Amino acid sequence: xxxxxxxxxxxxxxxxxxxxxxxxxxxxxxxxxxxxxxxxxxxxxxxxxxxxxxxxxxxxxxxxxxxxxxxxxxxxxxxxxxxxxxxxxxxxxxxxxx
Length: 98
Description:
Blueprint: H1 19-25, H2 29-38, H3 41-50, H4 57-66, H5 72-91
């Protein structure tokens, strides 16, 4: 193996003893981040639409109406659908090329 050039940028890890793990999981890092950020959104939105465990569109609409927001039911439905669609888009995002 060739010695790296002294001018080449050196990798600095947050926890240096885990350097090998960082190298192995490097290609999986962004998919894991997208999964960790997008996956909770989907069940949260489905939960609002399905009305399980006491949270439903009616309660969400009631909350919006207490804040003097017009169209409480429309806002609560839009919020639930936005959570579902955003979660799917975050998980399925195409990696940036370049």
